[in-house]
C-alpha cells in the first residue's frame, strides 16, 4: 500500500443507516487526512465487509452513470471481515453491496480519492 499515509493520520466518518437494512446498519469511511497521494496514483481503496453476513455482489459506478455495470466480485463472495481492493476509473463513485438473502445498501457520491477503506456495516 505504498503512497498511502499511515493509519494514525486517518479519521473515521459514519453515514446514517440505509433504510433497506436494519436500523443498526450504517456505513463508515476511514478518510485520509491528505488525499494527494491517492489522487497522484489514481483512485484505489478497500471495501471491507463488517456486516457479519456474506456479501455476494459489489458494484462501483462512476457518478453520474445511471447504471451499476457488472458485479466486481464476479464468481467470488466477500465473507464477514474480508476485504477487496478496488481501482475505479474516477474519484467520485456510487457503491452498492448486496448481502446473501438479497438485502443491499448503497452509498452515493463517495470520493474514493479521499479514502483508503470503505467499511460496509
Describe what this molecule looks like in 3D.
This protein is mainly beta. The protein has one domain: Sandwich (Immunoglobulin-like), CATH 2.60.40. It is 5% helix and 42% strand. It is built from 1 helix and 8 strands; from the N terminus they run E-E-H-E-E-E-E-E-E. It has one helix spanning 36-41, and strands spanning 10-15, 27-32, 45-49, 55-62, 83-86, 92-99, 104-111, 115-120. It has a 5-stranded mixed beta sheet with strand order 1-2-8-3-5, with no helix packed on it. The protein has a 3-stranded antiparallel beta sheet with strand order 4-6-7, with no helix packed on it. Strand 6 (92-99) and strand 7 (104-111) form a beta hairpin. The longest helix is centred in the N-terminal third of the chain and has 6 residues, at 36-41. Residues 1-36 have low confidence and may be disordered.
What does the secondary structure layout of this molecule look like, with pairings?
Layout: E1 10-15, E2 27-32, H1 36-41, E3 45-49, E4 55-62, E5 83-86, E6 92-99, E7 104-111, E8 115-120
Parallel strand pairs: 3-8
Antiparallel strand pairs: 1-2, 2-8, 3-5, 4-6, 6-7
Amino acid at each position: 500500500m505504498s503512497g498511502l499515509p499511515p493509519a494514525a493520520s486517518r479519521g473515521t466518518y459514519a453515514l446514517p443507516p440505509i433504510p433497506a437494512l436494519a436500523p443498526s446498519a450504517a456505513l463508515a469511511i476511514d478518510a485520509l487526512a491528505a488525499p494527494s497521494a491517492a489522487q497522484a496514483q489514481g483512485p484505489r481503496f478497500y471495501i471491507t465487509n463488517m456486516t457479519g453476513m456474506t456479501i455476494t455482489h459489489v458494484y462501483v459506478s462512476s457518478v453520474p452513470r445511471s447504471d451499476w455495470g457488472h458485479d466486481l466480485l464476479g464468481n467470488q463472495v466477500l465473507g464477514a471481515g474480508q476485504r477487496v481492493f478496488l481501482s475505479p476509473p474516477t474519484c467520485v463513485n456510487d457503491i452498492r453491496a448486496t448481502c446473501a438473502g438479497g438485502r443491499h445498501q448503497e452509498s452515493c457520491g463517495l470520493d474514493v480519492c479521499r479514502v483508503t477503506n470503505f467499511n460496509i456495516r
